[in-house]
TrEMBL record:
Pfam short name (any one): cNMP_binding
Domain Cyclic nucleotide-binding: 9-78
Organism of this sequence: Streptomyces durmitorensis
UniProt name for this protein: Cyclic nucleotide-binding domain-containing protein
CDD domains, A to Z: CAP_ED
Xref: InterPro entries: cNMP-bd_dom (IPR000595), cNMP-bd_dom_sf (IPR018490), RmlC-like_jellyroll (IPR014710)
């Protein structure tokens, strides 16, 4: 039996790929207020949140970082590690104590290059997350700036 609970985010991967990827995971903990990475920094790892919350933010000169999204249980933190130039597009800071699985990005990229089927599965998994987050950001921007909002009638 796998030593790690199956993240809902990782369920998108076939079992054999999920198990290989989770074999690289390391359990970590961060106190509230920990800066995980800064916008423009080297994207050398990523996380799947087990407990707690992490805010993704964008640097705004002369102001506090603008929070773009809050991530929680079972969500992927960081996708810039997969796509060149491997530099963070946003910053991330814990907003509560966090426990997470941490992955070394280079080790995962090496594994993906060695097994193109695994690489495609991981790329599809991360790409789906990026696409969903872009759609969500677009909707939030429309709600703020468009004359009639996003058009979502919830």
């Amino acid at each position: 039996m796998n030593a790690f609970p199956i993240s809902t985010m990782l369920r998108a991967l076939p079992v054999e790929h999920r198990e290989r990827l989770m074999g690289l995971a390391r359990e970590v903990s961060f106190p509230q207020g920990t800066r995980l990475f800064k916008e423009g920094g080297r994207a050398d790892r990523f996380w799947i949140i087990r407990t707690g919350t992490i805010a993704l933010g964008m640097h705004v000169p002369g102001r506090r970082a603008a929070v773009i999204e809050a991530l929680g249980h079972n969500e992927l933190v960081g996708w810039s590690w997969l796509f060149g130039p491997h530099a963070w597009c946003l910053g991330a800071e814990t907003t509560s104590p966090v426990r997470a699985y941490e992955f070394d990005a280079e080790a995962v990229r090496v594994m993906c290059r060695a097994d193109p089927v695994l690489g495609m599965a991981v790329t599809q998994w991360v790409g789906d997350i990026v696409a969903r987050r872009l759609r969500s950001a677009r909707t939030r921007l429309l709600d703020v700036y468009a004359p009639y909002g996003s058009g979502n009638s919830r």
